[in-house]
Design a protein that fits this description.
Oligomer: single chain
Radius of gyration: 22 Å
Strand content: under 5%
Number of strands: 0
Distance between the termini: 94 Å
Shape: elongated
Length: 213
């Protein structure tokens, strides 16, 4: 009697959809990683723990990622993409309406909405706090999560320079910190509420200065 090849679907039954199965596993791993880093903190989050919570083998995770940091970075990028339609501009785009103040306010308002989103706030706080004391993780956070957004600010400010809306001698990399750094500090240290009104004021102060006009 011939032995049926187990890799072949039985007659009349469709072949398993490996793409769907892989996507389901990937989504479960994202959710598990983000949940664990909130509950246990970054140091106690492990590949084994993520695998157990996601209901997959740890080799499945190692097939796609080399470390828990890589898992969390990708999970964060996915989270940002998932929340983008609700929060505002699509990830990795920056509006250019010709009105620099309006464009900056729109992006910063979307950032506030994301930072206040419970899905994003708790895991991002956990990673940000660990990034302060874990130098390698901190570098990866900047390179993989922050730098793409910072580059967009730089590009928009350079476009404003070309349009004569910003002085040509201004360094865009330093200038963007006038918007980003106060918001990040207030959010991380909980020194005050973050709101659309707050970020609008940051833009106004930064673009118009504090000296009498």
């Amino acid at each position: 009697m011939a032995v049926q090849n187990s890799a072949q679907p039985a007659p009349g039954k469709p072949a398993p959809d490996s793409t769907r199965r892989s996507e389901k596993s990937r989504r479960a791993i994202y959710d598990a990683a983000l949940a664990l880093v909130v509950e246990a903190g970054y140091p106690k989050t492990t590949i084994e723990g993520i695998a157990a919570r996601a209901g997959v083998g740890k080799q499945t995770i190692y097939r796609w990622w080399s470390s828990k940091a890589d898992v969390l970075m990708e999970a964060f990028l996915d989270l940002a993409e998932q929340s983008a339609p609700e929060a505002g501009p699509e990830p990795y785009t920056f509006p250019d309406t010709g009105d620099l103040a309006a464009d900056l306010k729109a992006v910063l308002r979307a950032t506030v909405d994301e930072l206040r989103d419970p899905r994003f706030e708790a895991p991002s706080r956990a990673l940000a706090a660990e990034g302060v004391v874990n130098e390698q993780l901190g570098r990866e956070l900047v390179a993989k999560l922050m730098q793409p957004s910072l580059d967009l600010y730089i590009g928009r400010l350079r476009a404003a320079q070309d349009a004569g809306q910003v002085r040509p001698e201004i360094d865009p990399r330093i200038a963007l910190e006038l918007f980003i750094s106060p918001l990040a500090q207030r959010w991380l240290q909980r020194t005050g509420p973050i709101s659309h009104e707050y970020t609008d004021t940051l833009v106004d102060y930064a673009l118009h200065g504090l000296a009498p006009r």
